[in-house]
Structure formats: C-alpha cells, structure tokens
Amino acid sequence: GENVEQHPSTLSVQEGDSAVIKCTYSDSASNYFPWYKQELGKGPQLIIDIRSNVGEKKDQRIAVTLNKTAKHFSLHITETQPEDSAVYFCAASGGGGSQGNLIFGKGTKLSVKP
Amino acid sequence: ETGVTQTPRHLVMGMTNKKSLKCEQHLGHNAMYWYKQSAKKPLELMFVYNFKEQTENNSVPSRFSPECPNSSHLFLHLHTLQPEDSALYLCASSQPQDPHSGNTIYFGEGSWLTVV
To answer: Which residues of B81-103 are buried (b: 16+ CB within 10 A; e: fewer)?
Structure first.
C-alpha cells in the first residue's frame, strides 16, 4: 500500500521568510496530493491540492510542486506570517491499493516568529 | 464553518461508561470517515462508509462501534474504553470514493475524548 513520508517534523522561520515542506510517496499510481493545515484546537483544513497531470499549482502565497518521476511533492509558503503557524499535513491517494483513501504524512509543525 | 459538524466537542468518560460521538455533514457527500488523531499517530483512519455501507475497518478494536444511518450522519459508539484511547476523533466526508481517483475530504473540528 501507499506510504507517505513528510519532512521536516518541525520548522521555525522568521516572519517574511519562505517555508518549504517536503513529502515522498511510494505508490507510483497515486494521482492526488492535497495539503491540509491544522490550527490549534481545530480540524485539518484543505489549503491546496494537485493532481498528477499538473507539475505545479499556486494560490497566492502558497504553491505546491509535484515530481512524479521522483515521487515527491512539496509545499512552498512565501512571505510567511504569524498566522501561518500551524501543523501541515501532506497526503496521497488514488493509487488503487489504498482504495482511494488518503494516506497522510506525520505532519510538520511550522512556527513563524514575528 | 466546515460543513461537517461534530458533537460533543469535548467528552470525559470513565472506562465503564458508554457514550457516542455524532457527526453530521451538510455538503451532500456520500462518503464519511472516522479518523483518530493522537501524538503517536497523527491521522489514523478508523472507518469508511460509502453510501451508508462500511467499506473499511482499519483493524479497529470492537470497543469502537460505528453507525451510519444515512449519508449525512455518522456515529461512533464508545464502550469500555481504555486510557490510551484518549485522543481527538475527527469525522470527515467526501464524494463517493473512487479507488483510482483521489477525492478531497473535508474534516470536522473534532471531538476531544479523555478516558479516565
């Protein structure tokens, strides 16, 4: 089945800097890769996603890149702000073996210091 | 407001108690999920329902019993739990699962469970 590895587990940046979180997946048939943001005391919220027919997708300060050959995808946050502080999860699905279920990474705790 | 509502938000129960968690989605979805979130395993899938039918039970102990009376409602019945079951229980929903095309799932805010 699918296995998703996420790095780093914690990331601390200064306000205004960029943050990058990386994930690798094992099932080459996976074709859907969402990113979720979870703030303290809340459920995970979808912030951006990408499908395997696209190499990059951008939404304001957030972008996701996908390298199907290497089986990795990354979240890029530019001009970070304190409100970006949260735990971020990557996920992968659509590989058939996981029956369409999203397989999540273990999360990255991002701290943006003012 | 996520469109997925969970109650109660916080629950403390003894090991001999019986309680239930409730989830309701207003997104018109036909798949619903229970996830367990703890420090050890951040997002652990427990159960999946598609069109009210259970399609996955991820080796969950029988002290957790799900119920899906219709596509909008999902329950998790709890009995004789252990302290290690203390965690955040997240409900989620999506369009019906397609094994070969991933679907976006939408989470509720979760129910914090403490077993004493």
So the answer is: beeebebbbbbbbbeebeeeebb
